[in-house]
Design goal:
The chain is mainly α and 284 residues long. It has 13 helices and three strands; from the N terminus they run βαββαααααααααααα.
């Protein structure tokens, strides 16, 4: 993705991005606050997008932009509320992000194992025998309630799928395993071996998106200020122990720092654009 403009109005940037979406143009608006936004475009479409942007600057209040934004966002009134929710094309998701889905399925299988034989699954996967090297990674597969599982897998799918599409399965595997190792080690040495969950890796990917969106927008990995605030607040509340659940706070912090370091190490790594992703899907 190529940065081509800055605007002093977040709403104007969103309006133009929505209009471009209805025209089949790949434009992303990255909002810093209500008075500042950056626009990024797919390099292959840049000449056409710049032409559209010039026209937008001349007539930003033209009805075509309001109509396009409404068309882009309005729900289908013929469907029920459930049908109006965005559907996931699982076949396309598997072709685009097989590692993300493989980890998701593995966590589901381990959760089923936990329901069938709790003691066996914990005995084999918790970090109770540090000399057995696989245990430094396997706590990421354990979840202790359905809410815990769903929360972590939703975040994993949201972040992991984008990362894999933009940077590839190989990098996602390396980054995720290193985050798991260091986040699990942080929790083990600071608290105890009795913990589990994918949230350390999730916080690592969150940290990666947070930093990469600022220092390397060309990767196309961004996270909104609202989500950044939520994740940091959740981390802080966990350390103050005011939540109704027990959390692996040191795993979260260790994962966050590791992900941020990875974003800095890969600050010159380019991401695939949308056109390249479509070519990969076609080849598969």
């Amino acid at each position: 993705m190529h940065k081509f403009a800055e605007l002093n109005s977040a709403s104007a940037a969103q309006l133009f991005a929505s209009y471009c979406a209805t025209q089949g143009l790949d434009v992303q608006a990255v909002l810093s606050d209500a008075n500042h936004a950056e626009l990024f475009a797919a390099s292959a479409q840049l000449p056409q997008i710049e032409q559209e942007f010039s026209r937008f600057l001349r007539q930003p209040s033209h009805a075509r932009y309001q109509a396009a934004a409404w068309q882009h966002s309005k729900p289908d009134m013929q469907q029920s509320q459930a049908d109006a929710l965005p559907a996931i094309d699982w076949r396309a998701a598997w072709l685009q992000a097989p590692l993300t889905l493989a980890v998701l399925l593995l966590c589901l299988l381990v959760y089923c194992w936990q329901q069938i034989d709790w003691h066996s699954s914990s005995r084999w996967l918790q970090l109770t025998e540090p000399g057995q090297l696989w245990r430094w990674f396997t706590p990421m597969l354990l979840h202790f309630s359905l809410t815990h599982l769903v929360f972590n897998l939703a975040w994993w799918f949201y972040l992991g799928r984008q990362f894999e599409q933009r940077l590839g399965a190989g990098l996602l595997l390396n980054v995720s395993l290193s985050i798991a190792l260091l986040s699990n080690a942080a929790q083990y040495f600071m608290v105890s071996p009795h913990f589990g969950g994918l949230s350390g890796v999730v916080y690592g990917l969150f940290g990666y998106f947070w930093i990469a969106g600022r220092i390397n927008p060309a990767q196309g990995l961004f996270i909104s200020p609202g989500l950044i605030g939520f994740m940091l607040l959740w981390l802080l509340l966990g350390f103050f122990d005011v939540l109704w659940v027990s959390m692996a706070n040191w795993a979260h912090l260790g994962g966050l720092v590791t992900g941020m370091v990875w974003a800095w190490l890969l600050r010159h790594q380019a991401g695939r654009n949308k056109a390249e992703e479509e070519v990969i899907d076609t080849d598969i």
